[in-house]
Amino acid sequence: MKGFTLIELLVTVTIVAVLAAVAFPSYTTYVERSKLVSATEELTSYAGLMQQYYANERTYLNAAGDCGVTPSSSEHFSIGCTAPSKTSFTLTATSLANTGLGGAGSYVYSIDEDGDQTTGKFKGSAPSDTDGWKLRK
Fold first, then answer.
1. pLDDT tens for residues 14-73?
2. Cβ–Cβ < 8 Å for 96, 78
3. DSSP states of 84-103 as a string?
4. pLDDT exceeds 70 at position 1
5. pLDDT of residue 130
6. Is 45 helix (H, G, I), strand (E, B) or coil?
7. What is the CATH number assigned to the segment(s) 6-121?
8. φ, ψ of residue 82 in degrees (nearest 5)
9. Number of C-alpha atoms within 13 angstroms, CB side, residue 56?
10. pLDDT tens track for 18-34
11. Helix-then-strand count for the chain, H and E
């Protein structure tokens, strides 16, 4: 007779299950982190555009009193801008719901006119250290 015994098949299935149980959390963490990096890259890009706008116009505000550069939302984050005065702005990226990042607002990142980066929320709660962008546990 040729073929595999039931024991051999069970051992193989068990080995595959253990490998999948170890690999899947690492993969999901990697995918999550790539989405976070994408959001922080967009914030940096918009901050640069705001600096260019300021260099040309000597203000961060447009004629309507809004941010000189209007950011657009990405696939995973809503990006907004506030400019309370001619000389300051804050760009904020807030995670959207149903994007593999938990509920809406589970992650919040911001950058201001000085380039100061802060993490408002990470995995749904405020991190103990808000300086810089937290991308990992």
1. 999 999 888 888 888 888 888 999 999 999 999 999 999 999 999 999 988 889 998 888
2. yes
3. EETTEEEEEEEEPTTSSSSS
4. no
5. 65
6. helix
7. 3.30.700
8. -125, 140
9. 10
10. 998 888 888 888 888 88
11. 1, 4
Name the one residue in this structure whose structure tokens are 């807030």. 94
What are 81-135's pLDDT values in tens digits?
999 999 999 999 999 988 888 888 889 999 999 999 988 888 878 776 667 888 7
Residue 126 DSSP SS3 = coil
Domain ranges of the chain: 6-121
- CA 112/CA 92 separation, integer angstroms: 9
Q: Are 60 and 87 in contact (CB under 8 A)?
A: yes
Give the Cα separation of 109 and 99 in Å (integer): 16
Handedness of CA 37, 78, 123, 119 (dihedral sign): positive
- Cα 29–chain centre separation: 12
Q: What are the structure tokens assigned to 42, written together?
A: 């967009």
Residue in this structure with the two tokens 């509920």, named with its chain if needed: 103
> Distance (Å, rounded) from C-alpha 61 to C-alpha 103?
32
